Amino acid sequence: MKKITDSKVRSRGRPLTSPDELKEKIIIATLELLLAEGYGKVTMDRIAKEAKVAKKTIYRFVDNRDGLIELALGSWSAAFKSAFIKDAGNQEQMAELLEQGLAEIAAQVLSHKAVAMFKLLQSEFPGRIQLNEIYRENGVMRGRQILADWLQRQADKQLISKCDTLEISNLILSMVIAEPLRELALGEPHAMPMAHRIAKAVSVFLPLLTDGLTV
User: Fold this and answer.
1) Which residue of 2, 54, 130, 148 could cross-link 169, Cys pair, CB 3.0 to 4.6 Å?
2) What CA dihedral angle connects 173, 179, 183 and 188, to 10 degrees?
């Protein structure tokens, strides 16, 4: 009888998990453990157990615990990076794309897990400073930079005036995100529907950007 090799057994069994699927499992396990038990409980061993993967599999993607948390939090901002890939052909289209992009950012930043993370960072716990820095770099700051880069491309196309796009990005996102995030963190109802808030922000900033504003 011909001996069956390991490769043939493997090929007839369950398909191997792809790197993207493994990464997603690790990210989900990291976020769930972080929000449920806090920064101090996030270890490579615990995540490997929760994600049902070997610890060496985690090291394929990151070098240490902070890298693991950075990967997990970075997944939020990576999700809205696609919001500002397309450039406008004219000012009317720019308003439409800006509204769409802001809506995608808001959906990520105001998601249940993102709000839970924001609330966690308001409390005192070991590792809060490190976690807050990772959160800022992979959430708030990256979101501002993505929008700023898009605005700069529109300025290069002369659809808006030259300006400090990073500062404008900060102001726009503050108007769109800050109050809804506070409301959600406190369990209050939204004072204004998100679509209306975004439209208002665009109606305030776009005329300034197209009328020669220089920050």
Assistant:
1) 148
2) -130
